Fold this sequence. Notes:
Elements: H1 2-18, E1 22-25, E2 30-34, E3 39-47, E4 53-63, E5 69-74, E6 77-79, E7 90-92, E8 97-105, E9 111-121, E10 128-138
Parallel strand pairs: 2-10
Antiparallel strand pairs: 1-3, 3-8, 4-7, 4-9, 5-6, 5-8, 9-10
Amino acid sequence: MKKLYFLVIFSTLILRVTAQDFTPQNATLNVSGPSDATLAAHADVYNSGSQAYEVMCAITGATMAPHHDKYFCFGDFCYDPTVTVSTIATTMNTGESKILSAYVIPNGVAGTSIVTYQIYDQSGSSDTLSLTFTYDFSEVGIDELSRTKYA
């Protein structure tokens, strides 16, 4: 009897882990460009569940190259680089998606920055979505003049 009880609990836990209502669509997770331009990564966060949620967005991890700054917009709101958790919940109805736009400003410095965002239900349910964006900034080249082009 104990073994059967254990199997019932185990199968219930598996169902909870795999039954997520937030799914990414049209995600651009890896972006690259020159170190003199702000790069943006985007993902549509889709509510595939059967209920509406009050959704928050948080930066849960960041490995930033020196002098790089990050900020994000989720739903109708944008947050400055000092904010790591959205301050306003965004309503996501069933079948609706909201855009997460995540930006890194390199401030002229080449390098790679990696930022992880988590989308979650404000009420504390287990529905969450983690997205990791990688930004690769390259040096900005200087065009050299050949000696024959000037007098």
